[in-house]
Amino acid sequence: MKRTFFYFIFLITISLTFHSCEVQDDNKVPDDIAINNFIWKGLNLYYFWQPDVANLADERFANQSDLNAFLYGFPQPENLFQQLLNKPKSLYPNPGEAIDRFSVIFSDYNELEGILSGTTKNNGADFGLFYKDASQTAVFGLVRYVLPNSDAAAKNVERGAIFYAINGTPLTKENYSALLSNDTYTMNFATYDAGNITPNGQSVILTKSVLSENPVYLTTVINSGAHNIGYLMYNGFYPNYESQLNAAFGTLKSQGITELVLDLRYNSGGSVATATRLASLITGQFTNQVFAKEQWNAKVEDYYNSTNPSTLLNLFTNKLGNNEGLSSLNLNKVYILTTKSSASASELVINGLKPYIEVIQIGDVTTGKNVGSVTLYDSPNFSKANSSSKHRYAMQPIVLKIVNKVGFGDYINGLEPTILLKEDFGNLGILGDSNEPLLQLAINTIMGSGRQMPQDPIRTFERLQDNSTMGRLKNEMYVDSKPFR
Question: For 326-340, how does the pLDDT look when each residue is reduced to its tens digit (9 = 90+)?
Answer without folding.
Answer: 999 999 999 999 999
